[in-house]
């Protein structure tokens, strides 16, 4: 395996199916461009005469569109920015805070990352979309699923305040799991 000598940027991108590592190599003398997603080579271009531009690829199970922009700053200095679904990484992360809830927990020595997509009510656990059963209850809704042999439930209850909206709580084996901040 050839050493990543031209590694110029590394990003961590949180998606519903997991946190993905994106690495970018840019050989400014050879014109080489290589994109790795989770250690796997996605794009390799040798001898590009144009040193600026963009590389577009997909990330994760949902094939989320990602673009690396290569811009000349001054002389032989370059700036690399990552866009996810056409938004800057910062905007993508801010948007995820509004549209998803994430919980990190350990059950029987195994780490789990549970993600609720609030718009679709899809539940992901360690990269897999879960089979769920939803039901209406007195104070809101409950979405039931299992992780291993553990019964899990995401309760959705109105906060009673318009600005806060709905509060989602993960309960595993009758124990409330605090939300994670990624």
From TrEMBL:
One of the GO biological process terms: apoptotic process
Alphabetized UniProt keyword annotations: Apoptosis, Cytoplasm
Stated name of the protein: Fas apoptotic inhibitory molecule 1
Any single Gene Ontology cellular-component annotation: cytoplasm
Functional summary from the UniProt entry: Plays a role as an inducible effector molecule that mediates Fas resistance produced by surface Ig engagement in B cells.
Source taxon at top rank: Eukaryota
Species assigned in the record: Crotophaga sulcirostris
Position of the signal peptide: none
Cell compartment(s), UniProt: Cytoplasm
The keyword Phosphoprotein is assigned to this record: no
Pfam families linked to this entry: FAIM1
Family label: Belongs to the FAIM1 family.
Chief location category: cytoplasm
Segments forming a coiled coil: none
